[in-house]
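Chapter summary example.
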Amino acid sequence: MMAWLIVRRILSVIPILFGVSVITFLFVRLLPVDPAEAYLRLSKIPVSDEALALVRTELGLDRPLYVQYLSWLGGALRLDFGTSYISKRPVWDEMMAYLPATLQLTFSSIALAFVISLPIGMLSALYKDRMFDHLSRTLSFVGAATPSFCLGFLLIYLFSLKLDIFPVSGRGGLLHLALPSFTLALASVAVYTRMLRGSTLDELHQPYVLYARARGIRERFVIGKHVLKNALTPLVTTMGMHIGHKLSGSIIVENVFAWPGIGRHFVNALFGRDYPVILCYVLLVTTIIIVCNLLIDIFHMIIDPRVRRKGAH
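The structure predicted for these 313 residues follows.
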């Protein structure tokens, strides 16, 4: 039963990915700029009717739209997304060259958000409606409302230009990673803190906590071993779901800090009308988001019998 539920959940992803590929392909093809003209301009070739006709034939743009899609989809299934109009290199190879930097930034920001949120969320729950709780909730709202690009430029001005502590931009050691990671993590800190506070308060009112206290077990042991373990479950789930969103949300941060990731590469492709790169990026990020959600669902099925019973109906 368990194996069948997992297989069924995996199979349900296939039509979603198919639908995303169709929508993405049609959206890019319906843009007002002609891909053949964009190719010629990026190749610094004079645009003429003869050159446009030749490029359309070369790129297969003279064929019916459904034939173009099927050809592109067949290549995508083989991880062949064509050649970049700008660099003239295979698109997939470029994406794999830029992806490690984005993954580094994504996972470091999630880890940083967790490290910051854990003590704040727990203390807010333990000192509910006190000064620390009100202050942490206020800071959470401010952090969630602060745009990433504003925070990024502010951190660069303060810690790079004024205090000269961190590098202004680029990828290198931990110092290069600190500011972009914090910028990307701040919005998640607000979410994680409020979620951990709420789940901790729920656990504190569970019968097992009352029984443990009645038996004379130390409060520190009750909180550290039982309450924290159960309160972290929804937070871990949310962190897993945020991996995909962080990958797509890192576009702004990567451009602010000149971080050489796929988000910055995508923006350059967008301005340059590099259609093969745009198609590959959208499909890659969407696939990662869907796969992350799939893994979280499977994780829930494994640890929570209620999810398995619900999925069986």
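To summarize the output: DSSP finds 14 helices and no strands in the chain.
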